[in-house]
Amino acid sequence: MQHGFISKDHLKQVLNDIQHFLIQHKTPKDAQSPSVKLSEQQQQRLKQKLSHLHAADIGHILESLPLDDRRDVWMQIPIDQRGAILLSLAAPVRESILADMPITEMVNTADNLQSGEIGNLASLASNLPEQAVELILQSLTAEQRKQLEVALSYPAGTVGSLMDFSMLTARPEETVKQVLAYCRKLGTLPEHSHHIYVVDQHNTLLGLLPLQKLITLPFDSKISEVMNLGMITFMTADSAEQATFAFDRYELTAAPVVDDENKLIGRICVDDIVDFMRESSEQQMLRQIGFVGREDRFSSIFASAQNRWLWLAINLFSAFIATRVIGAFEDKIVELVMLATLMPIVSATAGNVGNQACTLIIRSLALGQVTAHNIRQFYIKEVGISLINGMIWGAVMGVFVGNIYSAGIGVVMGIAMLFNFVLTAFVAVSIPWLRYQYDLDPAMGAHVLVTFFADAFGFFVFLGMATAFL
């Protein structure tokens, strides 16, 4: 079935319609149970609402529904569509659905994925229990079984874990006519089949031939005479992040994947790269604010609390330290009450400066633009920017506060803002860089730590200067 493009607003309206439908038509199962169900007629109406939607759109709807509604909608999806929908779901939502599925249903769902999509089958199988994977392997041909076992053997985040095995190959001694005949015999070509990969009898990759070029060549031309020798290849152990940079830099749609002996194993396609980019981008954003992992929006309260407690604890500890800094100057704050009203300005503005610098260095590290040779330039630039902003806004706030309270407090305010801007920017670059140097995730909790330093040092500098000079 073909599905037309659905705009964001239209999809939102479809989601609202389904939510309203579920609210209106659910009825109690029996007098003793608060659980609800849909009648057979209502189930058919819900199936009709879903029938014209693409798998990705249904996935979006499932992610937007509470657990009970999600199960009701899932039960109305035909078994032959469930595999593609599961692959479109965020990992936590996929896990919540799989948790309620019997083993036999998991196997049937996997069997309905297209036979050539071993990469997709591997993505699904990696979330299934061992018993289901064993049954799936038994249902495959010997070649497919070997491919699936190979795909499952690669660690997440590597090119090997993203590649698929559906590709066109040819021998160098074959003619253009023979290759064209082979393509016609296949009937349907694999997605993103822009090239034919040329291999010898040992499956060693020799070159590639663009399909566009193939259909314009004389029939009697040998593949060895017309193939391109220059090509970009990946190894199975290469990181998916490196592959992302290469696809972006060289505008690739697909590329061959080889082993240590340059034997063709599979290929990696642009849709795999896009999926990886989207997922890694969301994970990085969550890590920056202290989430341990991705979270189902409608998971249990306890599960969500577990995902957030670690960096909340760190944040609480850092906040306690900041309060102790304030406590050390308690007598001065009592003496000059206006200091309590000005402290948040010093810390909050410096925190904004630090988070800007922190975001930029994390992004630059992710793009591979920061090295030991140029990190000094990053420090100079970010500290220089904070110095300029500190001088400008410190002077503005100094004059403003000086007119309201006194010239002395205005001077302290301006100098404290300048020092805290510079110090926070330095720390904001240092935290991700040091974590990166020790092979740790540069983004994990970075903004939480930067905020802590902005608060603690901001309070210390402002209150310390006020104590010393006022």
Give a brief outline of the structure.
By secondary structure, this protein is mostly helical. The protein contains 22 helices and 8 strands. It has a 3-stranded mixed beta sheet with strand order 3-4-5.
Describe this structure in words.
It is a single chain. With about 475 residues, the chain is mainly α. The protein folds into three domains: about 10-155, MgtE N-terminal fold, CATH 1.25.60.10; about 170-270, CBS-domain, CATH 3.10.580; about 300-470, SLC41 divalent cation transporters, integral membrane domain (Tetracycline Repressor, domain 2), CATH 1.10.357. Helix content is about 65%, strand content about 5%. The chain has helices spanning about 10-25, 40-50, 55-65, 65-75, 80-90, 90-100, 105-110, 120-125, 130-140, 140-155, 160, 175-185, 210-215, 225, 240-250, 270-290, 300-330, 330-335, 340-365, 375-405, 405-435, 445-470, and strands spanning about 25-30, 35, 170, 195-200, 205-210, 235, 255-260, 265-270. Strand 6 (about 235), helix 15 (about 240-250) and strand 7 (about 255-260) form a beta-alpha-beta unit. Helix 3 crosses helix 5 (about 80-90), helix 19 packs parallel to helix 21 (about 405-435) and helix 20 runs antiparallel to helix 21 (about 405-435). It is globular and about 90 Å long. The termini are far apart.
